[in-house]
Amino acid sequence: MKNSEHKVKTFIYEGLGFPITLVNTPMRKVFGEWVIDIDMTRLQLVVLRALAFKSGRLTKHELQFIRKFLALTTANFGRIFGVTHAAVIQWENGKRQLTPSTEFCIRLHVLSHLRAKATEFRDLYNAVPLQVLAKEKTRKSTCLEIDISENFKVA
Hints:
By secondary structure, the protein is an alpha+beta fold. It has one domain: lambda repressor-like DNA-binding domains (434 Repressor (Amino-terminal Domain), Orthogonal Bundle), CATH 1.10.260.40. Helices cover 47% and strands 18% of the residues. The chain has 8 helices and 4 strands. Strands 1, 2, 3 and 4 form a 4-stranded mixed β-sheet that branches. A hairpin with a 6-residue loop joins strand 1 and strand 2. The model has no long low-confidence stretch (mean pLDDT 89).
């Protein structure tokens, strides 16, 4: 690697509205500042998939990221899941919590958007059972961890 490039073991990235721990992150010096050197579109897709399989409840910021990534208004997002746009706004403001079944449907919708294979839907069912979501009353803020070397082809 050149002097203007290096890897960071862990880097907390908050550019999507919530913290994500990036592991083995390539960095590049641009105008004297170190910045992450990865495909940001690819990062968003990897994060979207990781959110579908996240073991804990989705946070309001993660939910908002999903909706915006899917390019849906609050009204259209709500329509997909059988609620009003006001309910979506309340979810995103943290004033109302998603039901476990609605959250699971959102995760399924994310996988559908990503054109997941049938096995991935089964994997989601096994990884995030509804009874686990139902037992968790609060949205614990668990930081996603994305290993860049596993999810990106780094030269």
